[in-house]
Write a structure and sequence with these properties.
This protein is of the alpha+beta class. It has a single domain, classed as Aminopeptidase (3-Layer(aba) Sandwich). Strands 1, 2, 3, 4, 5, 6, 7, 8, 9 and 10 form a ten-stranded mixed sheet that branches. The longest helix has 15 residues. It starts with 19 loop residues before the first strand and ends with a strand. The N terminus is likely disordered.
Protein backbone atom coordinates (compact mmCIF):
# COMPACT_ATOMS: atom_id res chain seq x y z
CA UNK A 1 0.00 0.00 0.00
CA UNK A 2 2.66 2.39 -1.08
CA UNK A 3 0.04 4.74 -2.51
CA UNK A 4 -3.62 4.90 -3.35
CA UNK A 5 -3.23 2.70 -6.41
CA UNK A 6 -0.53 0.19 -5.47
CA UNK A 7 -0.72 -1.76 -2.25
CA UNK A 8 1.92 -3.87 -0.57
CA UNK A 9 1.57 -7.62 -1.19
CA UNK A 10 -1.05 -9.09 1.13
CA UNK A 11 -1.23 -5.79 2.98
CA UNK A 12 -4.45 -6.09 4.91
CA UNK A 13 -3.49 -3.76 7.73
CA UNK A 14 -3.64 -6.72 10.06
CA UNK A 15 -1.47 -9.51 11.30
CA UNK A 16 -3.06 -12.76 12.45
CA UNK A 17 -6.11 -13.66 10.42
CA UNK A 18 -7.96 -10.79 12.09
CA UNK A 19 -5.34 -8.32 13.31
CA UNK A 20 -1.83 -8.05 14.68
CA UNK A 21 -1.42 -8.78 18.37
CA UNK A 22 2.17 -8.40 19.41
CA UNK A 23 2.91 -9.06 23.09
CA UNK A 24 6.22 -7.50 24.11
CA UNK A 25 9.29 -9.12 25.56
CA UNK A 26 11.60 -7.61 28.23
CA UNK A 27 12.23 -4.89 29.23
CA UNK A 28 8.48 -4.29 28.78
CA UNK A 29 6.30 -7.03 30.26
CA UNK A 30 2.80 -7.35 28.80
CA UNK A 31 1.78 -9.29 31.90
CA UNK A 32 3.08 -6.58 34.20
CA UNK A 33 1.23 -3.94 32.21
CA UNK A 34 -2.03 -5.83 32.55
CA UNK A 35 -1.50 -6.00 36.31
CA UNK A 36 -0.76 -2.27 36.38
CA UNK A 37 2.73 -2.63 37.82
CA UNK A 38 4.35 0.78 37.71
CA UNK A 39 6.72 1.11 34.75
CA UNK A 40 9.49 3.69 34.32
CA UNK A 41 8.17 7.17 33.85
CA UNK A 42 7.98 8.57 30.36
CA UNK A 43 10.95 10.92 29.85
CA UNK A 44 8.67 13.84 29.06
CA UNK A 45 6.31 15.25 26.47
CA UNK A 46 7.29 15.39 22.85
CA UNK A 47 9.04 18.60 21.89
CA UNK A 48 7.51 18.44 18.45
CA UNK A 49 3.90 19.39 17.79
CA UNK A 50 3.60 18.65 14.11
CA UNK A 51 1.15 18.23 11.30
CA UNK A 52 1.99 15.83 8.51
CA UNK A 53 0.31 15.52 5.14
CA UNK A 54 0.92 12.30 3.24
CA UNK A 55 -1.01 12.46 0.00
CA UNK A 56 -0.29 11.15 -2.55
CA UNK A 57 3.12 10.11 -1.21
CA UNK A 58 4.73 10.08 2.20
CA UNK A 59 5.57 13.80 2.20
CA UNK A 60 5.94 15.72 5.46
CA UNK A 61 4.98 19.34 6.20
CA UNK A 62 5.86 20.56 9.68
CA UNK A 63 3.59 23.22 11.17
CA UNK A 64 4.74 23.42 14.77
CA UNK A 65 2.56 26.44 15.51
CA UNK A 66 -0.57 24.29 15.58
CA UNK A 67 -1.79 23.34 19.05
CA UNK A 68 -2.32 19.68 18.17
CA UNK A 69 -0.32 16.52 18.40
CA UNK A 70 0.85 14.64 15.34
CA UNK A 71 -1.71 14.24 12.54
CA UNK A 72 -1.37 12.57 9.16
CA UNK A 73 -4.01 13.60 6.69
CA UNK A 74 -4.19 10.83 4.12
CA UNK A 75 -6.18 9.94 1.06
CA UNK A 76 -5.47 6.37 0.02
CA UNK A 77 -7.68 4.32 -2.26
CA UNK A 78 -10.28 7.12 -2.01
CA UNK A 79 -10.39 6.72 1.77
CA UNK A 80 -9.72 9.94 3.67
CA UNK A 81 -8.50 9.58 7.23
CA UNK A 82 -6.33 11.26 9.84
CA UNK A 83 -3.78 9.79 12.20
CA UNK A 84 -3.42 11.41 15.60
CA UNK A 85 -2.56 10.55 19.19
CA UNK A 86 -4.95 8.46 21.20
CA UNK A 87 -7.40 10.37 23.39
CA UNK A 88 -9.31 9.01 26.34
CA UNK A 89 -12.54 9.44 24.40
CA UNK A 90 -11.26 6.91 21.84
CA UNK A 91 -11.07 4.12 24.39
CA UNK A 92 -14.43 2.47 23.74
CA UNK A 93 -13.82 2.37 19.99
CA UNK A 94 -10.29 1.00 20.39
CA UNK A 95 -11.54 -1.70 22.72
CA UNK A 96 -14.29 -2.48 20.22
CA UNK A 97 -11.73 -2.99 17.46
CA UNK A 98 -9.70 -5.30 19.69
CA UNK A 99 -12.77 -7.32 20.65
CA UNK A 100 -13.97 -7.52 17.05
CA UNK A 101 -10.68 -8.31 15.34
CA UNK A 102 -8.71 -10.07 18.07
CA UNK A 103 -11.43 -11.57 20.20
CA UNK A 104 -9.76 -10.08 23.28
CA UNK A 105 -11.25 -8.05 26.13
CA UNK A 106 -8.43 -6.30 27.97
CA UNK A 107 -9.21 -4.13 30.95
CA UNK A 108 -9.43 -0.39 30.08
CA UNK A 109 -6.60 0.30 32.53
CA UNK A 110 -4.19 -1.53 30.21
CA UNK A 111 -4.69 1.02 27.43
CA UNK A 112 -4.75 4.01 29.76
CA UNK A 113 -1.59 2.81 31.51
CA UNK A 114 0.32 2.58 28.24
CA UNK A 115 -1.09 5.88 26.98
CA UNK A 116 0.04 7.65 30.14
CA UNK A 117 3.62 6.40 29.83
CA UNK A 118 4.09 6.53 26.05
CA UNK A 119 1.45 8.87 24.58
CA UNK A 120 3.38 9.34 21.34
CA UNK A 121 3.38 5.56 20.79
CA UNK A 122 -0.42 5.19 20.95
CA UNK A 123 -1.93 6.51 17.73
CA UNK A 124 -5.31 6.13 16.10
CA UNK A 125 -6.56 6.44 12.54
CA UNK A 126 -9.85 8.29 12.35
CA UNK A 127 -12.36 8.98 9.62
CA UNK A 128 -14.70 11.68 10.79
CA UNK A 129 -15.33 10.74 14.41
CA UNK A 130 -14.85 7.02 13.85
CA UNK A 131 -11.66 5.23 14.88
CA UNK A 132 -10.85 2.82 12.04
CA UNK A 133 -7.49 1.55 13.29
CA UNK A 134 -4.75 2.04 15.84
CA UNK A 135 -1.17 1.22 16.72
CA UNK A 136 0.06 0.82 20.27
CA UNK A 137 3.60 0.49 21.54
CA UNK A 138 6.29 1.56 23.97
CA UNK A 139 9.60 3.37 23.69
CA UNK A 140 12.40 2.01 25.86
CA UNK A 141 15.37 3.78 27.36
CA UNK A 142 17.77 1.46 25.50
CA UNK A 143 17.01 3.18 22.18
CA UNK A 144 14.42 0.68 21.00
CA UNK A 145 10.72 1.03 20.34
CA UNK A 146 8.39 -1.94 20.57
CA UNK A 147 5.21 -2.31 18.58
CA UNK A 148 2.70 -4.09 20.79
CA UNK A 149 -0.48 -4.02 18.76
CA UNK A 150 -1.69 -2.92 15.32
CA UNK A 151 -5.28 -3.39 14.21
CA UNK A 152 -7.57 -2.04 11.49
CA UNK A 153 -11.32 -2.35 11.09
CA UNK A 154 -12.05 -5.08 8.50
CA UNK A 155 -13.94 -2.66 6.25
CA UNK A 156 -10.85 -0.44 5.93
CA UNK A 157 -8.16 -3.04 5.28
CA UNK A 158 -6.11 -3.06 2.08
CA UNK A 159 -6.55 0.70 1.79
CA UNK A 160 -3.22 1.79 3.23
CA UNK A 161 -4.44 2.43 6.76
CA UNK A 162 -2.17 -0.16 8.35
CA UNK A 163 0.87 1.05 6.44
CA UNK A 164 0.29 4.66 7.41
CA UNK A 165 -0.16 3.70 11.05
CA UNK A 166 3.12 1.78 10.99
CA UNK A 167 5.00 4.62 9.26
CA UNK A 168 3.66 7.13 11.77
CA UNK A 169 4.60 4.89 14.69
CA UNK A 170 8.15 4.62 13.35
CA UNK A 171 8.31 8.38 12.83
CA UNK A 172 7.15 9.02 16.38
CA UNK A 173 9.74 6.59 17.70
CA UNK A 174 12.43 8.49 15.80
CA UNK A 175 11.28 11.79 17.31
CA UNK A 176 11.75 10.30 20.77
CA UNK A 177 15.25 9.09 19.93
CA UNK A 178 14.63 5.42 19.18
CA UNK A 179 17.15 3.82 16.85
CA UNK A 180 15.27 0.61 16.10
CA UNK A 181 11.77 -0.84 16.18
CA UNK A 182 11.14 -4.40 17.40
CA UNK A 183 8.09 -6.64 17.23
CA UNK A 184 7.06 -10.27 17.49
CA UNK A 185 4.88 -12.19 15.06
CA UNK A 186 3.65 -15.76 14.84
CA UNK A 187 5.87 -17.94 12.66
CA UNK A 188 2.76 -19.13 10.81
CA UNK A 189 1.49 -15.62 10.08
CA UNK A 190 2.81 -15.31 6.54
CA UNK A 191 0.68 -12.28 5.71
CA UNK A 192 2.01 -10.23 8.63
CA UNK A 193 5.60 -11.35 7.99
CA UNK A 194 5.33 -10.22 4.37
CA UNK A 195 3.72 -6.94 5.45
CA UNK A 196 6.56 -6.15 7.85
CA UNK A 197 9.23 -7.19 5.38
CA UNK A 198 7.68 -4.76 2.89
CA UNK A 199 8.25 -2.05 5.49
CA UNK A 200 11.90 -2.92 6.05
CA UNK A 201 11.71 -5.36 8.97
CA UNK A 202 13.94 -8.43 9.05
CA UNK A 203 13.63 -11.62 11.06
CA UNK A 204 16.24 -11.59 13.83
CA UNK A 205 15.41 -14.65 15.88
CA UNK A 206 12.79 -17.06 17.12
CA UNK A 207 11.09 -17.33 20.50
CA UNK A 208 9.96 -20.86 21.23
CA UNK A 209 6.50 -21.39 22.73
CA UNK A 210 6.06 -17.63 22.90
CA UNK A 211 2.26 -17.57 22.67
CA UNK A 212 -0.18 -19.08 25.14
CA UNK A 213 -1.14 -21.58 22.45
CA UNK A 214 2.46 -22.83 22.46
CA UNK A 215 3.20 -21.39 19.03
CA UNK A 216 6.63 -19.91 18.29
CA UNK A 217 7.21 -16.28 17.37
CA UNK A 218 9.70 -14.54 15.14
CA UNK A 219 11.33 -11.39 16.42
CA UNK A 220 11.54 -8.79 13.67
CA UNK A 221 13.46 -5.55 13.67
CA UNK A 222 14.29 -2.56 11.52
CA UNK A 223 16.43 0.51 11.98
CA UNK A 224 14.77 3.89 12.37
CA UNK A 225 16.11 5.83 9.41
Amino acid sequence: MANEKTQAPNDSGSGDSAAILLPPSPPISWRSVRKNIILPRHPGPSRDINTYRSHPRDRTDVQSKLSIHIINRCTLDQTMFRIRRFRRGDLDQVMGIVAKTLGENYDPSVYLHLASHWPEAFIVSVRGKRVIGFALGAINEDGSARLLMLAVQPAYRRRGVGSQLLRTFIRQAAIKGARRVILEVRVTNKVAIQFYRHHGFQIKGILQHYYTSGEDAYTMERAVA
